[in-house]
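Exercise 7. Given the encoded structure of a 345-residue chain, write a plausible sequence.
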């Protein structure tokens, strides 16, 4: 049976049990520019310092975003006493080293997805954060969007019946071969870690850790995975199909199918978007985001979420725990292992 109305979304709004924190940025670049802009426009969180190996880059970024202090070393930034949270926006190959640096300085730490390049690296970061008593969180912004909380409630409250599958894709035509970071193995490149993580995390949120993983696809001659299809088994009668590519742009839609109804998420499903709740009898309802926070501005939700978790005394996100973060990386590890093994035959 359909709900009379959609559940109210969980909103991580400024001023609601979320202290205003001082933030420091490690490694300014494209995603950092989008994150800082979104946060400063839509939250009461503020960056107070930026650190880069390049003094000119740090200074330019600080001027662009009205950030008070610019450092030409990462060590200086994490030592800043006014920095409560460090946001790490470097390539994933640097996440373990910089995450350890931030955690050792006693800072709450937000690391761009993926948290690390392997599950073992993620375990090391999680252990360090737990020992230090600081919050560690992967910047997987999709988990904190209003639509995600509505989808989660519909699934958990049984409006779909028994969920039988998740079908999702995420493909981007990444330019600049072979110099773009996603084409370079030494920078943690490849489609799965950077793009495929979105379909995999959706499957994980809905169905949990898979019992079986089958991956087919291909590699670039630089040694990174270029495209793949993952078939994840979740026990009897439950199977998901997830695809990713850095060679072509795909619709990036997602469908969660149950025995009574399905949720059909428009592209790009991992960003603020709309979805349709469709019953097996033909009935349908459409959910629209009415917050006015659109596109990449949706990055702001995770910033306020982190601040709320810090205010609650947490050391991990309850919506995306470190155990789940590690589990998702285990799935990606195994998928990449299979792709490389197939390529070597």
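Solution.
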């Amino acid at each position: 049976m359909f709900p009379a109305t959609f559940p109210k979304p969980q909103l991580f709004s400024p001023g609601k049990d979320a202290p205003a924190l001082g933030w420091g940025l490690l490694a300014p670049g494209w995603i950092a520019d989008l994150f800082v802009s979104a946060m400063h426009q839509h939250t009461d969180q503020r960056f107070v310092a930026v650190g880069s190996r390049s003094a000119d880059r740090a200074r330019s970024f600080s001027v662009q975003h009205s950030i008070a202090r610019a450092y030409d070393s990462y060590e200086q930034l994490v030592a800043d006493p006014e920095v409560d949270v460090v946001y790490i926006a470097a390539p994933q190959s640097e996440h373990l080293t910089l995450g350890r640096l931030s955690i050792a300085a006693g800072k709450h730490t937000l690391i761009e997805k993926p948290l690390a390049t392997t599950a073992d690296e993620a375990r090391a970061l999680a252990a360090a954060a737990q020992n230090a008593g600081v919050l560690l969180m992967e910047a997987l912004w999709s988990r904190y969007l209003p639509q995600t909380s509505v989808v989660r409630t519909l699934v958990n409250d049984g409006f779909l019946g028994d969920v039988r599958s998740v079908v999702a894709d995420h493909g981007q035509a990444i330019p600049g071969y072979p110099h773009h970071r996603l084409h370079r193995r030494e920078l943690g490149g490849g489609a799965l870690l950077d793009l495929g993580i979105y379909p995999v995390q959706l499957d994980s949120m809905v169905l949990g850790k898979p019992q079986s993983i089958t991956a087919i696809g291909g590699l670039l001659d630089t040694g990174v995975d270029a495209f793949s299809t993952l078939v994840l088994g979740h026990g009897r009668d439950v199977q998901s199909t997830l695809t990713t590519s850095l060679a072509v742009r795909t619709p990036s839609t997602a469908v969660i199918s149950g025995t009574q109804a399905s949720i059909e998420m428009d592209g790009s499903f991992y960003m603020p978007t709309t979805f349709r709740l469709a019953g097996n009898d033909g009935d349908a309802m459409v959910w629209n985001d009415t917050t006015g926070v659109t596109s990449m501005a949706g990055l702001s939700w995770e910033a306020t979420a982190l601040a709320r978790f810090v205010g609650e005394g947490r050391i991990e996100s309850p919506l995306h725990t470190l155990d789940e973060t590690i589990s998702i990386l285990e799935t990606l590890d195994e998928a990449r292992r299979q792709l490389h093994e197939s390529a070597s035959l």
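Remark. Residues 322-344 form the longest helix (23 residues). Students should compare their own answers with the one above.
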